[in-house]
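Hey Z.,

So I finally got round to the zinc ion thing we talked about over coffee. Here's the setup:
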Amino acid sequence: MIATCSCGAVELQAFGKPIVRSVCYCADCQKGAHEIEALPGAPAVSDPDGGTGYMLYRKDRIDYAKGAELLRSHKLKPTSPTNRMVATCCNSAVLVNFDRGPHWISAYTARFQGDLPPLECRVCTKSRPEGVVLPDDVPNYRTYSLGLILKLLASRAAMLLGR
Ligand SMILES: [Zn+2]
Ligand SMILES: [Zn+2]
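And the result:
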């Protein structure tokens, strides 16, 4: 799978299936999306219903093929360990990573081209904008789902075992 910024100067290659494809409605993702979308020329980050789509990949399954030097961290607070990485060429939100901790990155689904793997769940739906009614095509979790956490742990174990 290939993800690019809207002008094409930044390109990520993701190998294999994502750990999970989900949509997050938490307050931080909504705030991050609004702040980045307010930058000049920025393409949409979140969906019209307030959700932000992500494909989670192990760090070792992501290759920064082009333009890595154009990525800049957008933090909601200076002390936050969470980096929303924005392509400075065209203000596209490309991925979320962390100063420390997690072994995965969350790439913004909006930046991927071609056939996407199916959506698996929506998380943090209790924070969705008032009045938004979600379809029930996939599980909608009010906070984070246990299944998602188990998948992340399993992917960590597989990575440590070199698989
Ligand atoms: Zn760009
Ligand atoms: Zn979120």
